[in-house]
Give the backbone structure.
Amino acid sequence: MPEDPGPLSDREIEVLKLVATGATNQQIARALSISPNTVKVHLRNIFEKLGVQSRTEATMEAVRRGWVEVANGEVAAAQMPDGVTADLPLTAVNAPRALRPSITLWQRIYLIAAALLVLAAVLLPGWWKGRGRADSTSPLTDAGSPAAPANSPLAITRWEGGATLPVPRSRLALVSDGSKLYAIGGETAEGVTDEVTVYDPASNGWLPGPSKPISVSNIGGVWLDGRIYIPGGTTSSGAETDVFEAFDPQSGTWESRARLPSPVAAYGAAALDGKLYLFGGWDGGSSRSATLIYDPDSDSWTVGTAMPGARAFLGAAPLRNLVYVVGGYDGENELRTVLAYDPASEGTPGGPWSARADLSQPRGGLGAAALGSRIYAVGGGWNAPMAYNEQYDVQTGAWSRIGTPLPGQWRNLGLAAQGQRIYAVGGWSGSYLAVNEQYLALLRQLLPLSGRGG
């Protein structure tokens, strides 16, 4: 007799039964008339409730509990929603048995081994956790990441909280036009979003802006030529894109620009001397070392000198005549290396890249911004908790610590400089964040003018 589904909702049971047939997220979405991102959210909840980390483990757990049936070595879901078979592979559900290939010896061995692993996980959970398996979630999404309640920001010197985002999100772009800040795209609990919200520091309030034509996450943005430019990113299908869009705040309109040479997300972006520079990123399979240069006058891309090493989820910030590339994540390790890029040295024997002092600890998924004579690195904590943020003084060539209102993990946030402040918005810290934390980087002191003595 099948076990009671307990903590699983009816919808989650439907999703789990479809997972057992081998259906993809897109096929499940069509069958249940929901979005692929909603499927991802359901899968994350199913994995957490069942204590599993993959589709195979979830399927075997469903078999063990009697929620799906196994006949002749094949999994067939019972009580499937109407119309599912039209969207699934012929061998998945209710296919004519003559068209189903007979199970091979190795498939039988695989099923037996998988069943034994599931049994071991149930009976010996300590042994299973001790095997040190890597997290099966993609570095390009927070869906499926271990969830935890968001911590309230701490009261830290020179940090002040502003009005929070209307909807918590991570992997967004935050861009200043000099008076307002634009939070663009990113990922929410409902999936990748096209949302644009505009923050006015004068009123400490957010207002909705014109939605981005294409929903993307893992993006950065720059203010250049009176527009906000957003290259590439990860779409709602989970794939990287080469789409390049620009927003004109004066007209409130989005327009398409020259496509990127290849799809990329999780890059570092900076504007310097009338051009946009894009460094590294993720191409769907691995991190990159490429340098791409965009000229808005000709609406064209050229290829610059690649970085000495590949990295994604990095920070990039322009200061004076250089762009500083800070930290990063390569899918396994956070990085502490810092490089300086000099556009004027492209094509010279020495090349445009030079090393700078390393961060005091590795940071991936951080934000970088420049203000005054300093570069600010905020966030990180992909593999190890962060107890502080950092600032780099170009005059001394050294990093020093500054406080953080969110110790531990605070990654894939939006970071921008405006006026005297560094604005850190959203991100991930066990859950999607709506924070709007502001660091007073520059202090102005008014000195009294003494009158002349008579």
Notes: The chain has two domains: 10-129, 159-440.
